[in-house]
Amino acid sequence: MTAETDRRFMALAIALGARGLGRVWPNPAVGCVIVQGARILGRGWTQAGGRPHAEPVALAQAGAGARGATVYVSLEPCSHHGKTPPCADALVAAGVARVVTALEDPDPRVSGRGHDRLRAAGIEVTTGVLAAEAEAMQAGFLSRIRHGRPMVTLKLATSFDGRIATASGESRWITGPEARHLVHAMRARHDAVLVGGGTLRADDPLLTVRGMGALRQPVRIVASAGLDLPLGRLAASVPEGPVWLLHGEGAPPAARAAWQAAGAQLLPVAQGGRGLDPAAMLLALGQAGLTRVFCEGGGQLAASLLAAALVDEVIGFTAGLALGAGGRPSLGPLPEGALVDAPRFTLVETRAVGGDVLHRWRRA
């Protein structure tokens, strides 16, 4: 196989793996392609709930044709016994001749052992093909393994002067239907949707994915130090998808009991200066297995995550209207300092979505 052929099939494996984003946590979203010559014999990606893994799905498609084949996997095959047998063992048993991977798995249970097992069986192993592309797709899983926290995508939908509502709080709708539909697709590609208590009190949002057919709903998370939250639509919708509440140790027992009775899961975390400590929140979510969190505000929560350098990506939707200085800003106060110290991001993408503009930024 040429280097260009390796890149082409690895790009397909990465794209297949991306189909699992938002559906496979705490597992990584992996893709696998099995090839004989130029013919694809099997394709697979990690299935909903995290299993089966990509490799056995692709091997089942390839059948006996996998013997002597080349296998492209977007992450090192696992080598440990969990709820399923090791994928490295499955590849050895299938008699494949060569395995090409994009990344070594940093999970201490794997971390090179999958590659070593393949080599010990006489299988040729090539690593690092399209590593940067695989890193970007696996950013959430890699963040949880390396830093103990999920990656955070902050979504801001604003007027072109940076406001999210009028002075009276009216906010429906600043952006158009195309942008709102795209936001539902973005929710579906994350493990969880996160908002602050102020957003729940003001809007009582459902935070579900709608208009995308039947799929696994993301975890709906509300951060509220005192759990002073209305038992409204969100509480009533717990059967539609899990609801988690991040709260302080001093939250009233009556409020805790009421939300637990509604079926919500409560996660106590340490408090910081003006509310919950943002690093403690994300560590708690990482310990719970989440890899990708989609934060939809409000302004104080967004500012606290930005100030703590915990936002990995910002997705902005800018609408063609102005609300003026009296409108509500998209961000709460940030610590005062020099311009050079301000949270800074690098532009990745910009495009029109209906009558609005999408711009996507990655932490510099």
TrEMBL record:
Task: Tell me the function of this protein.
Answer: Converts 2,5-diamino-6-(ribosylamino)-4(3h)-pyrimidinone 5'-phosphate into 5-amino-6-(ribosylamino)-2,4(1h,3h)-pyrimidinedione 5'-phosphate.
**What family does this belong to?**
In the C-terminal section; belongs to the HTP reductase family.
Quickly give the catalysed reaction.
5-amino-6-(5-phospho-D-ribitylamino)uracil + NADP(+) = 5-amino-6-(5-phospho-D-ribosylamino)uracil + NADPH + H(+); 2,5-diamino-6-hydroxy-4-(5-phosphoribosylamino)-pyrimidine + H2O + H(+) = 5-amino-6-(5-phospho-D-ribosylamino)uracil + NH4(+)
Locate the residues binding Zn(2+): H53, C78, C87
A single GO BP = riboflavin biosynthetic process
Molecular-function GO terms, alphabetical:
5-amino-6-(5-phosphoribosylamino)uracil reductase activity; diaminohydroxyphosphoribosylaminopyrimidine deaminase activity; zinc ion binding
Pfam families on file: dCMP_cyt_deam_1, RibD_C
In short, the EC number is: 3.5.4.26, 1.1.1.193
Residues annotated as domain CMP/dCMP-type deaminase: 4-125
SUPFAM superfamilies from the entry?
A: Cytidine deaminase-like, Dihydrofolate reductase-like
User: Which cofactors go with this protein?
Assistant: Zn(2+)
Q: Which UniProt keywords apply?
A: Hydrolase, Metal-binding, Multifunctional enzyme, NADP, Oxidoreductase, Riboflavin biosynthesis, Zinc
Q: Which InterPro entries match?
A: APOBEC/CMP_deaminase_Zn-bd, CMP_dCMP_dom, Cytidine_deaminase-like, DHFR-like_dom_sf, Eubact_RibD, RibDG_C, Riboflavin_Biosynth_HTPR
Which pathway features in its UniProt record?
A: Cofactor biosynthesis; riboflavin biosynthesis; 5-amino-6-(D-ribitylamino)uracil from GTP: step 2/4; Cofactor biosynthesis; riboflavin biosynthesis; 5-amino-6-(D-ribitylamino)uracil from GTP: step 3/4
Binding sites annotated in the UniProt record for NADP(+): A157, W173, T199, G298, G299, Q300, L301, A302, A303, S304
Annotated active site residues, numbered on this chain, are E55 (proton donor)
Binding-site residues for substrate, renumbered to this chain: S171, R187, D203, L207, R210, E296
Q: What is this protein called?
A: Riboflavin biosynthesis protein RibD
Which CDD domains does the UniProt entry name for this protein?
A: Riboflavin_deaminase-reductase
* Cofactor annotation comment: Binds 1 zinc ion.
